[in-house]
Amino acid sequence: xxxxxxxxxxxxxxxxxxxxxxxxxxxxxxxxxxxxxxxxxxxxxxxxxxxxxxxxxxxxxxxxxxxxxxxxxxxxxxxxxxxxxxxxxxxxxxxxxxxxxxxxxxxxxxxxxxxxxxxxxxxxxxxxxxxxxxxxxxxxxxxxxxxxxxxxxxxxxxxxxxxxxxxxxxxxxxxxxxxxxxxxxxxxxxxxxxxxxxxxxxxxxxxxxxxxxxxxxxxxxxxxxxxxxxxxxxxxxxxxxxxxxxxxxxxxxxxxxxxxxxxxxxxxxxxxxxxxxxxxxxxxxxxxxxxxxxxxxxxxxxxxxxxxxxxxxxxxxxxxxxxxxxxxxxxxxxxxxxxxxxxxxxxxxxxxxxxxxxxxxxxxxxxxxxxxxxxxxxxxxxxxxxxxxxxxxxxxxxxxxxxxxxxxxxxxxxxxxxxxxxxxxxxxxx
Length: 430
Fold this sequence. Notes:
Blueprint: H1 8-13, H2 15-24, E1 30-33, E2 40-43, H3 49-54, E3 60-61, H4 64-67, H5 70-73, H6 83-101, H7 104-119, E4 125-126, H8 127-144, H9 151-173, H10 180-204, H11 213-218, H12 224-255, H13 257-270, H14 286-298, E5 305-309, E6 313-316, E7 319-322, E8 326-329, H15 331-335, H16 371-388, E9 389-393, E10 403-404, E11 408-409, E12 414-419, H17 422-429
Parallel strand pairs: 2-8
Antiparallel strand pairs: 1-2, 3-5, 4-12, 5-8, 6-7, 9-12, 10-11
């Protein structure tokens, strides 16, 4: 018998499989999902995503499925709307654009090289363990400025993020209130994380580099609490999305020696005589860009996002929705639907990413503000890794499906690194 929550057990058991099954068998652009005591619809037509995301905030905006995350990241730009949120997004976007054009490439390259060089001493390592830590260092550098954080501050931030990341992931799947003991545990963890975050932000606020994201946010005159909310949101989002995608990137490079060789050749073409990547070359480095886009197709940074109807009634594609209705959009489903992609489960770095069903960072004016930064980071990782190292896969079977959390967390992927033969690279490039 169907009721308000009749789909909830299947969703909790296998969110990815549930969304794929409901989306791929859809006969219309909207599929009703019985997940909550209010109407929820899965949007299955990619042509409707941008129109939905472009609608005015008075008609459709962030709703209860997003607002519940305020318990973790407060009233950050992830969970709020209006002029204040737009001002924060504009400041972050402007600073990231400047960094992408000037300073981020050498900073990211240095962090990537240092990370991979240390791994030469390990017999093998887990891809996600390494990529998640690397992604956090990269976003911390962009947030505070190169060299601003001490080793102690970096360790403290890592600990603060770990305190709240599991609670944030759990909150994404919980549609009702938590049990009292869960609420108390989460509250204690959040308090500890905020105490750490506040101490680090206050220590670094005045000495943050002028080119940092923190300096841009400082210029908006935010309160201490609002600034800390924004910092925590940036660390969580930048850490998880890029870190998980980077692990899948390492896997596909290790699994395909021909791909690794092609990336090595492209890296050589993009480097100056001193062996440094030239930022001006990266926008036309088609092999690495294609590989990054394909990784994000198969493992999108945001595997679902939602919007809520705010007006009394809203009409979309001939369907009328009442106030309080949630519209769920799943890139995981759209990126793997045979209606939009030939052989969608196959990795193909040369696959065109022009499909209307490609939206790893959302769509329209509310797309992820860090998409350019994430793309750049992944591209630099691919090129720096392939240019200097051979990556060996230490498993006989392909990895299983990711675990849906804040992003798509990879299973264990054991890898090993060996220095690439410079002679072989020279011959291959001729």
